[in-house]
Design goal:
517 residues; alpha+beta; 2 domains; seven-stranded antiparallel sheet; six-stranded mixed sheet; 37% helix
Amino acid sequence: MRQEVLRAFQFALDPTPGQVEALTRHAGAARWAFNHALGMKVAAHQQWRREVQALVGQGVPEAEARKKVRVPAPSKPQIQKHLNQIKGDSRTGGLPEGVYGPERPCPWWHEVNTYAFQSAFIDADRAWKNWLDSLRGARAGRRVGYPRFKKKGRAREAFRLHHNVKRPAIRLESYRRLLLPRIGSVRLHESAKRLGRLIGRGDAVVQSVTVSRAGHRWYASVLCKVTTDLPDQPTRRQRQRGRVGVDLGVKHLAVLSQPLEPDDAVTAFVTNPRHVRKAEHRLVKAQRALARTQKGSARRDKVRRRVARLHHEVAVRRSTVLHALTKQLATRFAEVAVEDLNVAGMTRTARGTVDKPSRRVRQKAGLNRAILDAAPGELRRQLTYKTCWYGSTLAVLDRWFPSSKTCSACGWQNPRLTLADRTFHCTNCTLAIDRDLNAARNIAAHAVPVDRPVAPGRGETQNARGAPVRPPGPRARRQEAMKREDTSPPRPVPPQRSDPPTLFTHNHIGHEMAKQV
């Protein structure tokens, strides 16, 4: 089925020193524009709070006062128009006295592309809307906090440039060069032949490019509207292999119910590369050197870049392994079954409180580090869209199903199975099998196919934190570290505020957050 989807093509850049300076300037301009837009929204929000408090002081009930006060939050058009009226220009010489001080703000605006400002204003609107939607329960996932300002040195250096159809300024000059407005022709580390051929055939149209810095490298993510054929059913080879169950873990990155290669049992156990452990020695030395430096010194900045480079190399290696594994699973099998893991809950700290300190905190911290290094949530996210790309289907097992404690042959349960028991012994049918392989077979047998998400680029897909309703089924009485497998009912949801404040549309200021932020 031929349809239009949004796909991003990421390339590592090889800029010249002058181009690095221009990229940094654009990233700084985007950060300033985001903070400027957010500052105007926060100022309006504070004005709304003051007016509400004034009415409450006059004896008006708080709920009624919130309904009466209307202070519109400025959106992108208003913010951009206001900035155009007050901004200065360093090319005109003596700047008149402005609104925010002796000089008008942003006198260097002409040195960067205008889309760096506009995209930052859009990001500020999205951050504000996400906060409001999360506050009123209209957004899935964990609660989004109050938008924060971006600080230089801590926020990610990035900016986004949109493509102008009438005057195309973002294009491939060759397979190894990308033309960016105001920056020039930047050399690419790898070939862009695949994207170039799609554009040449008319199957891809550039929408925007997001330039970001990670570690010691700059990357360009070119977002394109691609016309492609998305298969609506698996191939004959995929149908022959059928369904595969994937048990994610720490000892092995993944254990499959059937091997990747037919008649090769070794490929059923995917080795965990343990990227953080391999780089731990160099990371410890670099971070110790960073701790000995003085804040604000040139040496600290040098060591900080070294630490950032090491962390970036670990992230690249992890991403490479996960992309290779998920593509093999999506292309070789008709259906991929995984567990619905609560990664945020599994990696929650065990530090406890001052009154009730926890035990074995260091051991739990090491386990959390190993789970995050395996990145089960990212693997689930990649499978969600890659199964749509290659005609396969994703099936999810409910997180309450005791896959490790249930015999995959007869269904008998061993509620006393612990993490130290690496082999599952069934006393009913005398089956002896590796516990992870047993769990993978249970996942393949009991996972339920999920509805296909909207075509990639057309909407938001389910994230790895989604928690379906707990269905009736076999349960055990103990709890494991990787997921809950007990017979006790789920914990009740803590009660919310009995009188939530009135919500406005996202064109107006949100409600009071003094008691929640």
